[in-house]
Amino acid sequence: MTIAALNADQTDALQEVVNIAMGQAGDRLARTLDVFVELSVPRIRLVHVSEVIRTVREMISNTSLVSAVRQAFFDELRGEAVVIYDNAGCKDLANLMGYNDELSALEEQELLLDVSNVLVGACVNGVAQQFGADLSFSPPSIIAEKIPLDLVMSPENLSWQYALLVEVNFGLENSDFKSHLLILMAEEGIDTLRGSLDRLMEAI
Amino acid sequence: MPASGEDLSLLEFIVEKVNVGIFVIDSEFRVVVWNRFMESHSGCRTQNIVGQDLFAAFPELRESEKWLRRKIQNIFVLKNGSFTSWEQRPYLFRFRHNRPVTGGVDCMRQNCAFQPIKDKAGEVQYVCVTLFDVTDTSIYQNMLQKTMVSLADASNRDGLTGIYNRRFFEQSLAKEYSRAQRYGHTFSLVLLDLDHFKNVNDVHGHLAGDEVLRETVHRLGGCLRDADILARYGGEEFAAILPETAQNGAMIVAERLRAAVAATPIIFNNQPLAITTSLGITELRADIRRYEDLIKEADLALYASKDSGRNRVTCYTPTLGAEQA
Fold first, then answer.
1. Using CB atoms, which residue from B70, B87, B111 is nearest to A97?
2. Where are chain B's structural domains?
3. Taking Cα atoms as reference points, which of B249, B230, B247 lies closest to residue B239?
4. pLDDT tens, B71-101?
5. CATH code reported for the domain at A8-203
6. Could you state, in order of their start, the residue ranges of all structural domains in chain A?
7. Domain B155-324, what fold?
8. Which SS3 state, helix, strand or coil, does residue B322 take?
9. In the CATH hierarchy, which top-level class contains the domain B5-142?
10. In the 8-state DSSP scheme, what is residue B82?
11. Most exposed: A111, A117, B68, B223, by fewest CB within 10 Å?
12. Which of B66, B88, B113 sits opposite A110 (nearest CB)?
């Protein structure tokens, strides 16, 4: 696979960086949450704005309702991460995150934000570490609650043409918990990433 | 960021004076830094709290202690920052805010950011918490939400009479229809039309007509239950959805509606205006496939009332439909 905006070497390097980062993230999450975390092999695509919904739908193949949280990351790498949850949500994680078993609607929202922040932080920081970068994050915010996947992102609201999309999905041992992490870097973000990849390859 | 002695004191000054809460805790939850903002809002002096256990110093945190400990521990393990937002968790500490008079909220709304402070080896030594006063934002957000709710309500109502409009009526009818079908319940629909309303307008003017509509609605409302939905369907036509009501019950209600309007004349400019109404009723049956058919049936019954002399109630029967066809 070659991503048009990246040459073959850059693409290989990126896949390698992401694989290592996600492996480490899974390990760290498992230690934090004290459960075995099942992580898919990350998939990387360059998508046009018009295809982003279709691509995400193919990757997620979820027909029911989803909730989603977004969070921006910036400094040496620039983009946004979106975590998509099956409607079953992340209640299984409530206790592990220090919540009581009976969740109010607001606590459920906060749990969603907390879990997303942990997933995004672990994965995106994992990638950044490979580049020796130290990133900053915006607070996470809920962009969808129990709505069809197609409505999570509407292309007319997106101001970019092409974006690099990294998808990983998470599961927990003995749990229905399932979530998908999408890391999206649009044009400017890809330029930054290309520079980071080149420096990484020179350093090897 | 390497800093000389002078720069350091400048930074200290900023941390101290910035209008944002800043405090730092170590992995044992002991307070390391406590800036002026925290000091003045908590009433807890810096020299008294530095070195103390945060939870011991603030018994008010006990309610959220399990969650907060976990959140901070995660930062030490994951080396990754974390956040809280007032929208889910109104505040971390119960502080007074600066709008005691105009605020309308009980205490300071806070957004917090938790940042890891790492040593040279990349291990997290401390967690720095910045606490932002977002009371103003929360007040504006609440105002906005209230406005949205009243706008949504306004868009469902008829301007003249204040009861629901036709759009809301159709939505409600569709909802009631699918609810009744799903649970095998029944409900009835009443359509009501003012008799010779055009005359009122022509003879007494539109202001009289408006008053008649308002007073009619007032009288109709007095005969209905809270769960019933009364709406202005058209110019002088009204509709009432009667949940959990079969035809017999609807007949009684409709007769009461008719009598309430006809009982005494409506007074406009000291003039009595005798108003009567014609009504049509139908009840949900198994063979009704669309909620729109209910409107059609009640309308046929209403026109049967008109044809047979007005000021009366007619129940839909299939013969009415056959005559029409």
1. B70
2. 5-142, 155-324
3. B230
4. 999 899 888 899 999 999 999 999 988 777 7
5. 3.40.1550.10
6. 8-203
7. Alpha-Beta Plaits (3.30.70)
8. helix
9. alpha beta
10. E
11. B223
12. B88
